């Protein structure tokens, strides 16, 4: 028969203590001030959502091969973008204080967008939808975010980030005519009931790829093309 002795009592009491006292996560409260601690290491990003000095949620991820080559200030701002977007359901539509151990970000965030380097501009534009205040905090006081960035989750093969990386690395100098005159994808081709199937990943990404090329061409001061209106002779019959 099982014998419950004093050692079991002590272990059970210790378990109850561990699951009812810090550092367990606390419940989010919309009426309380919200803080995000963000940090970047050489190979990872970390973010912690904090209220009243207690963690509400934590997250981390590995840097991609391209992101590892970023300057440190770019990694630190990328950590803020990651943390803010990762906790979008908490951070959107309310004031949020962002704590970072990289002091230059506190100043750059207050300057006009045009005063920042191009890569930082792209990240800052992603943050424009949030009401953020970036403040400097010593790295020795950001133990949670620092630990998360150094001992990050190994998610470098994440599918969503792979797609984004593929779109970001497209050549912006490609001819805009390729975008406007591109052939329709097979996703829009009528099929019989027996031939219907789910669209492939390339068919879904194709319109996004074309839109991104168009956006980059315009941003690079590409000359405006003449209007491509249809004539009455080329207009197809109405359905």
Automatic annotation (TrEMBL):
This protein's record includes keyword ATP-binding: no
Gene3D superfamilies according to UniProt: 3.10.20.370
Family matches, as PANTHER family: PROTEIN CBG26694, PROTEIN NYNRIN-LIKE
Pfam families: RT_RNaseH_2 (PF17919)
Protein name: Uncharacterized protein
GO molecular function terms noted in the UniProt entry: catalytic activity
Keywords, ordered alphabetically: Multifunctional enzyme
SUPFAM superfamilies in the cross-refs: DNA/RNA polymerases
Matches recorded under InterPro entries: DNA/RNA_pol_sf, Retrovirus_Pol_polyprotein, RT_RNaseH_2
Record carries keyword Transmembrane helix: no
Superkingdom field: Eukaryota
């Amino acid at each position: 028969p099982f014998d419950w002795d004093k050692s079991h009592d002590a272990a059970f009491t210790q378990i109850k203590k561990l699951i009812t006292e810090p550092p367990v996560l606390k419940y989010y409260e919309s009426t309380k001030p919200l803080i995000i601690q963000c940090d970047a290491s050489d190979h990872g990003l970390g973010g912690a959502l904090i209220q009243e000095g207690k963690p509400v949620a934590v997250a981390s991820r590995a840097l991609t091969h391209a992101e590892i080559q970023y300057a440190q200030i770019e990694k630190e701002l990328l950590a803020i973008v990651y943390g803010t977007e990762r906790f979008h359901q908490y951070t959107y539509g309310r004031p949020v204080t962002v704590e970072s151990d990289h002091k230059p970000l506190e100043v750059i965030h207050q300057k006009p967008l045009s005063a920042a380097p191009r890569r930082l501009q792209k990240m800052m534009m992603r943050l424009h939808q949030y009401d953020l205040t970036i403040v400097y905090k010593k790295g020795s006081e950001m133990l949670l975010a620092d630990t998360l960035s150094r001992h990050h989750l190994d998610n470098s093969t994440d599918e969503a980030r792979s797609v984004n990386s593929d779109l970001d690395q497209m050549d912006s100098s490609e001819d805009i005519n390729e975008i406007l005159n591109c052939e329709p994808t097979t996703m829009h081709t009528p099929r019989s009931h027996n031939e219907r199937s789910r669209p492939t990943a390339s068919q879904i990404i194709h319109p996004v790829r074309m839109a991104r090329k168009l956006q980059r061409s315009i941003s690079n001061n590409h000359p405006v093309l003449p209007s491509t209106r249809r004539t009455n002779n080329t207009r197809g019959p109405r359905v």
